C-alpha cells in the first residue's frame, strides 16, 4: 500500500514540530510520507533543510505549488490564523484532504462553509485541536462520565504563558483550546458567554489578558483565564462537583482526584499528542474516514470565541456609585412622619425611609429620648416627646440658616 503523501504548509514554531513528527512517522510507520514543506521565509526553509534534512526539491515558498501537485494527497496547514480559511478552501477545492490548525478560521460562517465544502467533495477535514489526543484529558473524561465527582457544579480553565506577542489576538490564539477542553470534559457547549480583556503593552492594541465566563445547561458554569503576562506556562483544567474535584495538568499530563479527606494521583500514561493526531489523520485519509465531527467542533469553537469577543466589545454597564445616606435626615423624616400622624403618632410597620426599614432608627430615637413607645391593642405606637419636638425645631433652624449663608468649607453639618 502506498503511503499517504502529506505536505506541511507553514514552518514556523508549530510547523517545525509538525515537520519533525511527519519525518518520524515516515521512518517509524511507513504509512505516511512528507511530500513538501512550504514557508515564505528563507530562514524557515533553511532550518528545515539543516535540522531535519528536508531535501531542496521538497521546499517551496508557494502554497499553490504544493496544493496543485497531483502527487500530494493531503496538506497540514500551520500558518498564521488569518490565512487558515483561504488556504483550507483552496486545498479542499483542489481535492486535497486537510488538517488545519486551530482556530480553523476567524469567522464562524467561513468555518461552517469549509465543513460543508469538505463534505460535498467527500474529503477528510480535520481541525487541529491537539488536546483531543491528550491522555490525561481523555482519562479525566472517563472519570467524569462515571459520575465519580457527583453532579458537576463548575469548571475552571487556566491557559497562561509569559510571552510578548504584539500581533496576536489572545482570544483566538489561546482561547480555542480552553473552549475545546470544556467541550471534551462537560460534553456540551455554552448557552451563554461573557468576557473581559485588557492590554498593557504594545500601545494597548492587542489584549494580553482575558477572562471568559461560560454558562451551560443544568446550572453548570465555567471560568476561563487567558494570559500572556502570567509568570510561567500553565495549561490546567479543574472540574468541581458535589462529591469532589478533578484537576488536570494538561501540559504534563497529570491528573489529580480530590475527594472529601483524600487526594489521589490518578495514573496516566503520557503520550505524544502530535504523533497521535498525525497518526489519526493519516488513518482517516487512508480509510477515507469522512466523519464531520472534528470540523463541526472546530466551527462551534470559533462560534463561541466570536461570542466572547463580541461581549467584550459591548462593554458592560457601569456600576452606579452608592448614594451617601444621611442618617440625621432619615431620623428627621421619621420624626416628622410620626408628628404628622393622629395624636402625633404612627405605627412603625408603616414607616420606610429610602427603602430602609426604620426600626433601627426608632430604637435609636427611643434610647435618645426623642420618641416614646406606647403599647396598644393594635401594637406598639411611637410618639414624639418634647425633646423630639425640640430636636426638630433646632434642626429646622440650622437648615434655614445654612440656606441663607454660603457654606464654609470647614463648617460641619449634622450627619
List the helices and strands and how they pair.
Layout: E1 4-9, H1 13-28, E2 32-38, H2 42-52, E3 59-60, H3 63-67, E4 74-77, H4 84-93, E5 97-101, H5 108-120, E6 125-128, H6 135-145, E7 152-162, H7 170-173, H8 176-186, E8 192-198, E9 209-215, E10 221-227, E11 229-241, E12 244-249, E13 254-259, E14 262-266, H9 273-287, H10 293-313, H11 327-339, E15 345-346, E16 352-353, E17 356-357, H12 359-367, E18 371-376, E19 379-384, H13 386-404
Parallel strand pairs: 1-2, 1-4, 2-3, 4-5, 5-6, 7-10
Antiparallel strand pairs: 7-11, 8-9, 9-10, 11-12, 12-13, 13-14, 15-19, 16-17, 18-19
Helix pairs in contact: 1-9, 4-5, 5-10, 6-8
How would you describe the overall organization of this protein?
By secondary structure, this protein is α/β, with parallel strands linked by helices. It folds into three domains: 4-131 and 275-289, NAD(P)-binding Rossmann-like Domain (Rossmann fold, 3-Layer(aba) Sandwich); 135-270, Dihydrodipicolinate Reductase, domain 2 (2-Layer Sandwich); 327-404, Orthogonal Bundle (Arc Repressor Mutant, subunit A), CATH 1.10.10. It is 38% helix and 26% strand. It has 13 helices and 19 strands. It has helices spanning 13-28, 42-52, 63-67, 84-93, 108-120, 135-145, 170-173, 176-186, 273-287, 293-313, 327-339, 359-367, 386-404; strands at 4-9, 32-38, 59-60, 74-77, 97-101, 125-128, 152-162, 192-198, 209-215, 221-227, 229-241, 244-249, 254-259, 262-266, 345-346, 352-353, 356-357, 371-376, 379-384. Strands 8-9-10-7-11-12-13-14 form an eight-stranded mixed β-sheet, with helices on one face. Strands 3-2-1-4-5-6 form a six-stranded parallel β-sheet, with helices on both faces. The longest helix is centred in the C-terminal third of the chain and has 21 residues, at 293-313. The chain is elongated and about 105 Å long. Residues 343-356 and 409-415 have low confidence and may be disordered.
Amino acid at each position: 500500500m502506498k503511503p499517504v503523501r502529506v505536505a506541511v504548509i507553514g514552518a514556523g514554531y508549530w510547523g517545525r514540530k509538525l515537520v519533525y513528527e511527519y519525518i518520524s512517522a515516515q521512518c517509524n510507520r511507513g504509512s505516511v510520507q512528507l511530500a513538501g514543506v512550504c514557508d515564505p521565509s528563507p530562514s524557515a526553509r533553511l532550518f528545515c533543510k539543516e535540522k531535519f534534512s528536508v531535501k531542496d526539491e521538497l521546499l517551496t515558498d508557494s502554497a499553490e505549488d504544493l496544493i496543485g501537485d497531483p502527487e500530494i494527497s493531503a496538506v497540514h496547514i500551520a500558518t498564521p490564523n488569518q490565512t487558515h480559511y483561504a488556504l483550507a478552501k483552496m486545498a479542499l477545492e483542489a481535492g486535497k484532504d486537510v488538517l488545519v490548525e486551530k482556530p480553523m478560521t476567524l469567522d464562524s460562517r467561513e468555518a461552517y462553509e469549509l465543513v460543508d465544502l469538505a463534505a460535498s467533495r467527500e474529503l477528510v477535514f480535520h481541525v487541529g485541536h491537539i488536546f483531543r489526543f491528550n491522555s490525561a484529558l481523555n482519562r479525566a473524561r472517563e472519570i467524569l462520565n462515571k459520575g465519580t465527582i457527583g453532579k458537576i457544579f463548575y469548571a475552571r480553565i487556566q491557559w497562561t504563558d509569559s510571552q510578548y506577542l504584539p500581533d496576536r489576538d489572545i482570544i483566538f490564539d489561546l482561547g480555542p483550546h480552553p473552549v475545546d477542553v470544556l467541550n471534551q470534559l462537560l460534553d456540551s457547549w455554552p448557552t451563554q458567554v461573557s468576557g473581559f480583556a485588557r492590554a498593557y503593552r504594545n500601545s494597548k492594541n492587542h489584549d494580553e489578558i482575558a477572562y471568559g465566563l461560560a454558562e451551560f445547561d443544568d446550572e453548570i458554569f465555567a471560568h476561563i483565564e487567558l494570559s500572556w503576562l502570567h509568570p510561567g506556562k500553565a495549561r490546567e483544567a479543574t472540574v468541581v462537583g458535589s462529591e469532589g474535584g478533578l484537576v488536570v495538568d494538561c501540559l504534563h499530563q497529570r491528573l489529580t482526584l480530590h475527594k472529601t479527606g483524600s487526594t489521589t494521583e490518578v495514573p496516566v500514561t503520557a503520550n505524544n499528542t502530535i504523533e497521535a493526531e498525525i497518526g489519526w489523520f493519516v488513518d482517516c485519509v487512508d480509510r477515507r474516514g469522512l466523519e464531520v465531527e472534528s470540523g463541526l467542533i472546530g466551527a462551534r469553537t470559533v462560534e463561541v470565541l466570536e461570542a466572547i469577543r463580541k461581549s467584550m466589545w459591548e462593554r458592560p454597564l457601569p456600576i452606579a456609585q452608592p448614594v451617601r445616606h444621611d442618617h440625621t435626615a432619615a431620623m428627621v423624616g421619621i420624626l416628622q412622619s410620626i408628628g404628622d400622624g393622629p395624636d402625633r403618632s404612627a405605627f412603625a410597620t408603616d414607616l420606610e425611609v429610602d427603602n430602609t426599614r426604620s426600626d433601627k432608627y426608632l430604637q435609636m430615637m427611643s434610647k435618645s429620648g426623642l420618641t416614646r413607645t406606647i403599647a396598644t391593642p393594635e401594637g406598639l405606637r411611637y410618639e414624639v416627646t418634647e425633646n423630639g419636638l425640640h430636636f426638630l425645631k433646632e434642626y429646622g433652624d440650622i437648615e434655614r440658616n445654612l440656606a441663607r449663608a454660603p457654606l464654609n468649607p470647614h463648617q460641619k453639618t449634622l450627619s
